[in-house]
């Protein structure tokens, strides 16, 4: 039986800031990204949450690819490519 529940990243503090910053970065809008960062009360919490989100996404990618997560980390360090 497969789990159809979405993964939950446990980082309540900073989550909204991390998601907003990710949206601004994906939109290639550094001015918006910096505005969010500068006005946030929880930048360190957002940084930690961003790291947890990225880690969860990369572990999920490894699972989908059927390879150990360490192989995905090594690939990213070597090539700079994200296997998403």
Percent of residues in beta strands: under 5%
SSE string, helices as H and strands as E: HHHH
- The poorly predicted ranges are none
- For the record, the count of structural domains works out to 1
Shape: globular
CA distance, first residue to last residue? 24 Å
- Helix count equals 4
Profile the largest sheet: none
- Category by helix and strand content: mainly alpha
In terms of topology, how is this protein built?
Blueprint: H1 15-26, H2 30-39, H3 43-65, H4 69-79
Tell me about this structure.
The chain is mostly helical and 84 residues long. The protein has one domain (15-79). It contains four helices and no strands. α1 (15-26) runs antiparallel to α2 and α3 crosses α4. The two termini are 24 Å apart. The mean pLDDT is 88.
């Amino acid at each position: 039986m497969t789990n159809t529940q979405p993964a939950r990243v446990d980082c309540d503090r900073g989550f909204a800031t991390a998601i907003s910053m990710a949206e601004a970065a994906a939109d290639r809008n550094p001015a918006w990204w910096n505005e969010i960062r500068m006005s946030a009360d929880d930048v360190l919490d957002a940084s930690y949450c961003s790291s947890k989100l990225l880690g969860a996404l990369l572990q999920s990618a490894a699972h989908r690819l059927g390879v150990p997560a360490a192989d995905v980390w090594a690939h990213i360090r070597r090539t700079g490519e994200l296997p998403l």
